[in-house]
Each structure stands twice: as C-alpha cells, then as structure tokens.
Write a structure and sequence with these properties.
4 domains, Aspartate Aminotransferase, domain 2, globular, PyrdxlP-dep_Trfase, alpha/beta
C-alpha cells in the first residue's frame, strides 16, 4: 500500500526538550536489558550497577569543573530546586548564628517559574515567612546588581540562572558572585544551570555557587533524570527520605537507565566529539536561521542581544501575526517551535519579556526557536529552506510588493473576520479596493493595518461598535498606523453613500446595515438579530456578529458528526461523495496541501478546497457553499473546524463532519 508523502518534521524547540541521541539511547537500552542491577544489591550484578553509577558521578563532577563538590542524582531540575530551597531555609531556621530582622528570598524576574513557585511554597510550609523579592532585569535581560546589593545582607537565599530558557540571555556569574559576596558571604546562592550544560563553560571550583540543578532531557539524555551540584560544606537536608540511597542524601532506588544516559552524555562532552558543534558553528547556525526569518517575514523583532545570549536560542515576534498564527504556519510546514517556555504553555504573555520591558504585542506574541548543539549544518539549512517556503503564500496576504492591484491578487475582497482576545473585528473590501472596518480592536490593529497596506486598499470608513474610549483609541491607533505609512490608505466618506451603508441607532443598540444591489445585506451590530422568521442570524463565536439573509426558517437540529481517523474520513467521504474543506489560513493550507491531499487520497480532485474560517462568512454570503453537499472540515487540531461546523449546522447544512483531533494527530 502506498503511503502518503509526509512532511519531515524539523524540530526547533530544543529548549523544551531534545530527542535522545542514538549512542545515549543505546546505553540506556543496554542497562535496561542487560546491566539492570540495583546499585544497593550486594551481588555482582548490583556491584556492576553501583560502579556505573559512581563512574557517572565522577564524570559529571569533572564536566562541571569540581573536585570537591557533591553531585546528587535527581529526577530532574525541579527536584533539584526543591532540595536546594528546603536545605537553605532549614539551615537558616536551625542556625544559632544567622538571624535577620527582615529575612528575604531573592530570585531573578526572568527565572523559570519552578524557582519562585518553590520559594513561595517552602517559605510558607517551613514557616520562614520571609519577604520574597523579585530582582529586576534591564531591557536586555541582565539582573539589577544594585538591587541585589541593596537586599543581599538580609537574604536567606538568592536564586539566579546561568542561561534563560526563553531568550537565551547569559548572566555574568563572576560579576554576580562579586556583587553577592561583597555583601553576604553566608547567603545560599542557587544558579539554575539547566540551559547552560553543553553551551557555556562551567567551573564550579572557581566560583561560590552553592547549588546548581541540571536536567538530562535538555541535552539529549532521557526525561526523568538530572543532577544537583552542592558546594562542599554547604547545608543539605534530604528532600526524599526512605531507604538511604545516595549516601542518605536522596532515598529511592536510583534511575540507573537514566543515569546511564547521563554517563553517555558526559562521555560525549568529555571527548569533544564532533557530534556537538563548536561555538563558532552554532553562531553560524543562528545567523542562517535569522536570515531565513528576515527573508520570509517583514517587521521581525528579536528580543535578546546575540552578544549576550547563547547562539541556540532565538526569541522573536512578527508585527502583524500572533504567535499562534506563526506556530500554525510553521507546524503546517513541518517546523516545530514554541511560544515561550514549555512549562508556561497556556500563558497569555511572556513574563520574561514583560520583565525586560518589551511591548505588549511582543510579550504576548513571542515565538521561541531553539536548536541543539548536535544539530548539524544540513539540518539547519533544511530548516531555513522550510521557513522560506512560506514566503510565496505570505506574499499573497501580508507582504508588500509592487504588483499592480487587481481583484485576482487582492485576497480580501468581501468579508473577513479577525478574531483575538474573545472579540471579532470585521473587514469588508469592495471590488474597487475600498475597505470598511467594523469594531476595531487593539489586538488586531497590527494585522488589520498590514492587510490594508499590503493589499494597497483604501480604508473609507471605520465603524465603531460602541462610542467608547477603548473603541476610539483603537480607531486612532489604526489611523496613525495608516498615516505613518505615508500612503493614502484612509479616506473617510459619508456612510450613507457609495454602498448604501446606513447607520441605525436606538436606545438598545447601534448598528450599520450594508445593502447590496442583489438584495444581500450585512448588518454589523452589537448583537445580530434576525428581522423576521424568514431570516436567520449567524453569530460569531462570542456574540458580535452579522445578519445573513437565508431561505431557512429554523435551525438545523442535526447532531454534529465527529470523525476520529483518516480511514474513517475516507470511508465517510466515499459514502457521501463529500468534499474536504480545509478551514486553515491560506499559508498553512498551501504549506501542506500536497501532503493532506495524499493523506485523503484526493490527488488533484476538486473535492478538496480551502476556505479559511475568517472567510467563511463571505463564502456563505456569496453562496459558494451548498447546504446539501457533505463537507469534512479539517484544521490543525480540530478547534477551528469544530467552530466552523457549529456555524454551518446552525445555517441548515445537513452533512457536516469534523476531523475531531485535526491533522496534528493523523
């Protein structure tokens, strides 16, 4: 059976996790299958396991540059952070010498959330009740040393990081040491080294770092294993008590397969293997990726100084695309990136970029592209090619060019819905390239203005949903962006002219009705309401909407059809002679359309069409969708297609199925 061509995944989210390298995986598997002994067992198999464990410990100490410190195997960096915090606070509470009038716990404003959340938890649970203070950072992400010097004399613990997981910014650890120890020689100092291993030099014997957590899966070892460095003589309280493993410092049977993975990783690092690229090579890889981004997108902002950051992390935003839109585009092209820290997934804004004082747009729409030191030149050039493949489709929608304007080239003729922050803004474009904006909202101004400018439209009216300060501000923001362009992109006309656009106002609502010569009508209103039983309201998902005149008198009560696999989808399409309707944006669609066609066995069939969900209303107005045609709706994860399915069912479409988990899981 012929398999559909697949998009070779290009993984550029190494700061979240990395694949396990083959030599490391081989070592792990060998221990799982052959050398599987318990290091606490007295027989030969146990003795061999113990030797592997101690050899790994010795190598790890050498890798991080210490002959005197302790190396404790953990489940990962989070456990290491817990152990360090509990040890430091417990020691202070038990100390007869140390007692501060107003004890504080300090942490960097851009630390991984595992650090402040751990401080808050154990500060309360152990009864320290210290003030927890956030160390500010400057605009490039470097810690405020004056703030540290001001508060370090009362500090029980100071937590910083070597390399930031979102931006790649490196802290000057020697300078930090000078600042801290000049004020307080006893304070416990934790440095999160998770993103530093294999990327920056580490020499623990030359610096007074007390605790340093590491995690294996950030550098090609398995998940679930890490280690904690503890400076010789510094306080230690076991975080996990029990059978007394790890010399009583961390009970529980050691994760020997994971530790074998660390051993293999340490051996690669020690050998200076060509498997890990040099600093110069990594810098070249970064430059190639930045060039590809600049060639593909316009108005790209980079959020860290490359001179102050590791080469393997690029944090950026595009002025007119949300980070979700960028990630959707990349995903369609087989490129995996993230919107920031994997452990902050779901957050609406990057607290790291907020702390650096970046704009709201940049904080909310940052994209993190990160690669590993084992990614070779061929991999990076393939990634650059995949990124550049998005440009032709982007050119149609957002990129400025000098082509002569034509209805065929302008992709926004008719009605387009722009959604963000649970609100909808509507753009209507005539065949004369004149645009009406209804309900401008701050979060879509960048994208809206980019559409108007790149498509060379003339905005002739900006209609406010309500006469509020927020709406007025959004209108002024849009006007200012259009005026800054030095182009004639705004010319307000009386709303009673040209398209028979009429303002209707009552005590309850304000609406604008746009009437067409063919009898069609759009009503922009705070709440779309049908005027008679022969009309039916089509709502946007969250209330603001437009009236769409249809022939139906009632809503369709059919139960939505959920499709759970490609095979089920093929069977359904064959049975009903259905059409695959891709509701992803044009760039996403074009980036993977050949793959999707092959997936459903469609070839060059006309039964595979693309109507972005933002254009669904327009296609319904133009009657380009047939309510009797069976449609299978698809998108990346099934979310957008589910919403489109709900809309079509409301309008009386009889056979509408949804690929429930989207294309991501097929």
């Amino acid at each position: 059976m012929n398999q559909p061509p697949s998009l070779q995944p290009i993984y550029l989210d190494a700061n979240a996790t990395t694949p396990v390298l083959e030599p490391i995986a081989t070592s792990v598997m060998s221990v799982m299958l052959a050398d599987f002994g318990n290091p606490s067992s007295a027989h030969v198999t146990g003795v061999k396991a113990k030797r592997l464990l101690e050899e790994t410990r010795a190598l790890g100490l050498e890798i991080i540059g210490t002959q005197s410190g302790e190396l404790l195997f953990t489940s990962g960096a989070t456990e290491g952070i817990q152990t360090a915090v509990v040890s430091a606070i417990s020691d202070y509470l038990q100390s007869e010498q140390l007692h501060y009038d107003s004890p504080v716990l300090l942490y960097g404003a851009t630390e991984h959330k595992a650090v402040p959340n751990t401080l808050i938890h154990w500060n309360k649970m152990l009864g320290l009740n210290a003030r927890i203070l956030e160390i500010p950072v400057d605009k490039v992400g470097l810690l405020d040393h004056n703030f540290i010097a001001e508060h370090a004399h009362q500090a029980v613990m100071i937590c910083t990081m070597a390399v930031n997981n979102e931006t790649g910014v490196k802290q000057d650890l020697k300078l930090l040491e000078d600042t801290i120890r000049a004020v307080n020689t006893d304070v416990a100092w934790l440095v999160d080294c998770v993103q530093a291993l294999g990327k920056v030099p580490l020499n623990m014997d030359t610096i007074s770092i007390d605790y340093a957590p590491f995690s294996g899966h950030k550098l090609y070892a398995p998940k679930g294993v890490g280690f904690l460095y503890i400076r010789n003589g510094r306080p230690y309280t076991p975080f996990i008590a029990g059978g007394g493993q790890e010399s009583g410092m961390r009970s529980g049977t050691e994760n020997l397969p994971g530790i074998a993975g660390l051993k293999a990783l340490f051996e690669i690092l020690m050998s200076k293997s060509a498997l890990f690229k040099s600093g110069e090579q990594l810098q070249q890889h970064r430059l190639l990726l930045v060039e590809a981004l600049n060639d593909t997108f316009e108005d790209v902002s980079y959020h860290s100084d490359p001179e102050l950051s590791v080469s393997t992390t690029i944090n950026f935003s595009v002025a007119y695309l949300t980070n979700k839109e960028v990630m959707d585009l990349f995903d369609a092209a087989g490129i995996r990136v993230s919107g920031g820290s994997a452990c902050s997934a779901g957050a609406s804004s990057s607290f790291v970029l907020e702390a650096m004082g970046l704009t709201r747009w940049q904080c909310e729409n940052a994209v993190r592209l990160s690669f590993g030191p084992a990614d070779d030149f061929e991999f990076i050039t393939n990634a650059c090619s995949a990124i550049r493949c998005l440009k032709p489709s982007l050119q149609k929608l957002y990129l400025k060019n000098n082509e002569k304007r034509s209805a065929k080239r302008v992709n926004y003729i008719g009605l387009t819905q722009l959604e963000c922050d649970s609100q909808s803004c509507w753009l209507f474009v005539t065949e004369d390239f004149e645009a009406i904006v209804y309900n401008p909202i701050e979060s879509v101004i960048q994208k809206l203005s980019r559409i108007i400018l790149s498509q060379n439209l003339t905005c002739t009216a900006i209609l406010l949903k309500q006469d509020s300060v927020k709406q007025q501000h959004a209108r002024e923001r849009l006007l200012s962006v259009l005026e800054v362009s030095n182009e004639t992109n705004y010319r307000e006309i009386p709303t009673c002219q040209k398209w028979n656009l009429k303002r209707e106002e009552s005590e309850q609502s304000l609406s604008y009705v746009l009437r067409f010569t063919n009898g069609k009508r759009i009503r922009f209103a705070e709440k779309a309401q049908a005027e008679s039983s022969s009309h039916e309201a089509l709502f946007t998902p969250r209330g603001a909407g437009f009236d769409l005149v249809t022939e139906k008198t009632g809503l369709n009560k059919l139960k939505p059809i959920e499709i759970n696999s490609v095979e089920e989808a093929k069977s359904w399409l064959s049975q009903f002679e259905g059409v695959v309707l891709d509701v992803r944006d044009l760039v996403e669609h074009e980036a993977s359309k050949e793959h999707v066609k092959a997936l459903f066995g469609m070839g060059d069939s006309p039964s595979f069409i693309n109507i972005p969900r933002s254009r669904l209303a327009n296609e319904l107005l133009e009657k380009r969708l047939n309510e009797h045609t069976p449609y299978l709706l698809i998108c990346r994860t099934g979310t957008r297609s589910k919403k489109a399915q709900e809309t079509l069912i409301k309008l009386g479409f009889k056979h509408v199925a949804n690929l429930s988990d989207g294309l991501a899981l097929v």
